[in-house]
C-alpha cells in the first residue's frame, strides 16, 4: 500500500497524479519511433537508476503506457486503466474516496506481468481520501510510490515523448505560424540563405580557387553575381540582430505582463539552455569530424579549427568567443551566438528604463547608438579598414578589432528593441493613409539601395584615414536595420503588398523552425567539402551555383535532424514542465 501526503486539488488530483496515463489516453496519435525498440533498454535502465526503480518495473510500466497510447489499446491495458479509481458524484456530501475495482485489476494477466491493486492515500486539509490504482505486479510498494511522485512531475511521460520522432517531426513541419509577426519567418530564411551563399564564396575564395585573380576581376564589383560573390552578406547578420532585439523586447514585455509586472530571474538561464545544447554539440561535432575524416590538400583550415577548439572551447561555453581574435576562435561562425547573448543580457535593463520613464529610455538609447556608430567610425579611420567584408584573410585587423565586437554591432539590436517595444505596446496603427506607407516604402528601399551600392563603391581599402569609409562604417548597419524594421511594421499594418505575401508564405514556417541548426551546421559542410579537395576549385558561375544548392540541401537535411534530436527534446521537456 502506497501512502503520500501532498496537497492536490480534489477535482484534479487524479489527472495530476497520473498525468502520464491521462495524457497518453487523450493523445492516441503519439507513436514511438522504430529506434525505440533498440534504444529503450538503455533509456529504461537510465531512468530506473535515476529513480531507484527496478528495470523490470520500469519496463512493464512503460509497456502499459505505450499500449494506452494506441488508438485501440489491448484488452489488458484497457482493463488496468478502467480499474483506476475515478471521481464520483456528491463530493460535497463526502463521497471523496475513489476505490476503483480491485477484482478487475487482479484479473489482468499478460505473459510478462499481472495487475496489482494499490491505494494511494492523499491528505488535503481537512479531507483525507484514497485513490485505487492498478500497476504491474513487478513493481514493489516503494517503487509504486516513486512512480507516483514521478507522475506528479510528468517526468516519465516527458522522457518518453522526447523519443517520439513522429510527434516532434510533425511539429517541425507544421506550416502554421504562431508568430504574430508573419513576415519574420521569410526575412529570417532569406537572410540565412544569403549567409550560406556568402560563406560558400568566402571559404572557397580565401584559399581554394585556381583562378582567384579572374574571380576578383569579374565579380567583386558586380552585384549581379549573387552566387559567386553574394555582396555585403554581413547585412544579413545585422538583420538577425534586428530580429533578435525585436523578439527579445516582445518576449520580455509579455513575460512581465504575465508575471504581475515582475521580471523573471530565469530569463538568461532560459536563453542559455535553449542555445547551448545544440551550440556545444556542434563544437564537439566539428572536433570529431575534423579529426577523423580523410584529409585533402586544403585541410590546414580544419586543422586550425581543431586546435582552436581544443584550446578555447571554454570561450564557447561562456559565450565570449567573439572577444577573441579571429585566429583563436573555436568554430568562428558561432561568434553570433555570443554577441546575441551579450545583447540579450542588456535587454532587461532597457525594458526597465522604458517602464520607468520613456524619455530616459530614448536618451540612453540615443547615447548607445551614437557611441556604437562613433566607435565603428573611429576604428575604421584609425586602422584603415575596408567597409566590405574582405575576401582575403590578409585584413585580420578587420575581424580582430571590428567585425564581431559588441561595441560596433549594437546598433541593429537597439533598433530591434525599440521596434519591439513600439509594436508590442502601440495602440492603433501608425499608418493612417496610403501616402504615408508609400513614403515609408520609398525611404526604406532607397536606404537599402544606397547601403548596398556604397558597399561596392567603397570596397577598396583606403591607404589613409578616409572620411567616407568612416561615415559609412558608422551608420550603415543602423540604417539597414531601420529599413528592415519599416518593412516588418508595414507588413503588420497591412501595407506590405506583394512583399508581405512573399514573406508570409507558409513554406517559411518549417524552414524557420530549423534555421538555428542550419546556421550552426552549414559551415561544417563547407569546410569539409573544401578541405577534402585534392585540387583547387575552378571558378565558374555554374560551379558556385551548384555548390550553393548542394550545401543548402544538405544543410536543411542535417538542420532538421539536429533540431529533432538535439534542440527539440529540451524545448519539449520545458513545454511539458510549463
TrEMBL record:
<feature type="transmembrane region" description="Helical">
    <location>
        <begin position="544"/>
        <end position="566"/>
    </location>
</feature>
<feature type="transmembrane region" description="Helical">
    <location>
        <begin position="407"/>
        <end position="425"/>
    </location>
</feature>
<feature type="transmembrane region" description="Helical">
    <location>
        <begin position="478"/>
        <end position="495"/>
    </location>
</feature>
<dbReference type="GO" id="GO:0016747">
    <property type="term" value="F:acyltransferase activity, transferring groups other than amino-acyl groups"/>
</dbReference>
<feature type="transmembrane region" description="Helical">
    <location>
        <begin position="267"/>
        <end position="293"/>
    </location>
</feature>
<dbReference type="InterPro" id="IPR006621">
    <property type="entry name" value="Nose-resist-to-fluoxetine_N"/>
</dbReference>
<feature type="transmembrane region" description="Helical">
    <location>
        <begin position="224"/>
        <end position="247"/>
    </location>
</feature>
<dbReference type="InterPro" id="IPR052728">
    <property type="entry name" value="O2_lipid_transport_reg"/>
</dbReference>
<feature type="transmembrane region" description="Helical">
    <location>
        <begin position="437"/>
        <end position="458"/>
    </location>
</feature>
<feature type="transmembrane region" description="Helical">
    <location>
        <begin position="507"/>
        <end position="529"/>
    </location>
</feature>
<feature type="domain" description="Nose resistant-to-fluoxetine protein N-terminal">
    <location>
        <begin position="54"/>
        <end position="181"/>
    </location>
</feature>
<keyword id="KW-1133">Transmembrane helix</keyword>
<keyword id="KW-0812">Transmembrane</keyword>
<dbReference type="InterPro" id="IPR002656">
    <property type="entry name" value="Acyl_transf_3_dom"/>
</dbReference>
<protein>
    <recommendedName>
        <fullName>Nose resistant-to-fluoxetine protein N-terminal domain-containing protein</fullName>
    </recommendedName>
</protein>
<keyword id="KW-0472">Membrane</keyword>
<feature type="transmembrane region" description="Helical">
    <location>
        <begin position="313"/>
        <end position="339"/>
    </location>
</feature>
<dbReference type="Pfam" id="PF01757">
    <property type="entry name" value="Acyl_transf_3"/>
</dbReference>
<dbReference type="Pfam" id="PF20146">
    <property type="entry name" value="NRF"/>
</dbReference>
<feature type="transmembrane region" description="Helical">
    <location>
        <begin position="360"/>
        <end position="387"/>
    </location>
</feature>
